[in-house]
Amino acid sequence: MTHADQPTPSRASTRGRNPVLSFMAVSILFGGSAVGCSGDDGPRAAATVKLVTYEGYVLPEEPAKQFRSETGQRIEVLASGDGGAALNRALVASGAPEGDVFFGVDTTFLSRAQESDAFVEYRPAGLDGVDPALLDPGGALTPINEATVCVDYDQSWFAQRQISPPTSFQDLIDPRLADLTVVMDPAVSTPGLAFVAATAATFGDDVTEYWRALSDNGVAIAGGWSDAWFTRYTVSGGDRPIVVSYASSPPAEVVGSDDPAAVPLTAVVASTCIRQIEYAGVLRGGANPAGARALIDEMLSDRWQAALPLSNFVLPIRSEVELPDLFERFAVRPERPISVDPATIGRQRDSWISAWRSVME
Fold first, then answer.
1. What is the C-alpha to C-alpha distance for residues 65 and 303, in angstroms, rounded to an integer?
2. Which of 113, 120, 114 minimizes the C-alpha distance to 137?
3. CA proximity to 215, closest of 253, 270, 162, 178
4. Could you tell me which of 147, 151, 181, 183 has the C-alpha nearest to residue 57?
5. Burial annotation 274-302 (CB, 10 A radius, 16+ → b, else e)
């Protein structure tokens, strides 16, 4: 989530789906008949625009309804796997894609998408409200939202046992916290790769030794965010009270609770947080390129951006968009999150993953 895997209210529920499913297609069809105009090259030329993304992505319902009302397009969501796996699938299908738009290219896999021919250049309306530093120089990928990947922990688990929770990456290799942490496979999981990038930025040349110490301290490796959060994390009934997730996990818990007075069980280790931007792009060879362009425009609109915090628990990429009170109260906003240049990640990604796997195996 976001990306690319985030815990959302929906992610506290829809993301519980089995991440090993080979493919899942969810059609989000909103009321009224589709409008089509024969020979029209505008967005009404086809009834459906297909959005390819990762498992657990949540389509903002009200903006999607309004988009359909205004364009005649319904949005069909084709979701599979974690962020990295979903992108790999889209890149393999370059030129003959399953859909029209891909959402979920994040900072850790940005260079891979930029180097591919899977996307076509499109510069949507609304870019004037986006930090120029986040724009894709090639113009094929549009920044949509921002998230922060962090080490999170179950406050109640530690309080009940009177154990001090982690406050840094270093604490994860402390023997007193042995066998308590679950992270994700960085080869297929964007938060997993973000964790690897954040530790590499923190420990530099000594990062392999840090990963080895993490392995020796009993870290568990999950296949993806859903597996880690819903199967292994203690808040969900698992056995690991420390999990790689997001700074927005606390408000997601509150929204996902049936108790109107609920407060988050999850806390965030702010010193471990790394900034993550998610991008969308028009897929080359898609059946509905006009609808794809219209959808990218919509994703930068005021209404879509304003719906992101409580649909996918991410920050809108346009900073002037007001955040909901619940997000302001419970989401952690690290003052100085770790930031790694996407080009650096592109150069180091394969070697990091190879070193990680050699240590963890």
1. 11
2. 114
3. 178
4. 147
5. bbbbbbbbbbbebebbbbbbbbbbbbbbe
pLDDT at 288: 97
Report d(CA 135, CA 16) in Å as an integer: 32
Do residues 93 and 100 lie in contact, with contact meaning Cβ atoms separated by under 8 Å?
no
Residues of the chain with pLDDT under 50: 1-3, 5-41, 43-45
Q: What is the pLDDT of residues 235-266, one digit of tens each?
A: 999 999 999 999 999 999 998 777 767 889 99
pTM of the model: 0.81
Rounded distance, CA 36 to CA 40, Å?
Answer: 8
CA distance 301 to 318: 9
Give whole-number Cα distances, 330 to 155, 268, 338, in Å.
14, 10, 20
Which residue is associated with the tokens 């992101």?
308
pLDDT digits (tens, 9 = 90+) for 292-313: 999 999 999 999 999 999 999 9
Q: Strand 181-184 relative to strand 220-222: parallel, antiparallel, unpaired? A: parallel
Tell me the domains of the chain and their CATH numbers.
Answer: 14-146+277-328 (3.40.190.10), 148-275+333-360 (3.40.190.10)
pLDDT of amino acid 260: 65
pLDDT at 256: 77
pLDDT score for 12: 37
List the helix and strand counts (H, then E) for the chain. 12, 11
Quote the CA–CA distance of 269 and 169 in Å, as a whole number.
9
How far is 15 from 252, CA to CA, in rounded Å?
12
CA–CA dist 274, 90 (Å, integer)? 25
- CA-wise closest residue to 108 among 140, 79, 82: 82
- Write the Ramachandran bin of 162: left for phi over 0, alpha for psi from -120 to 50, otherwise beta: left
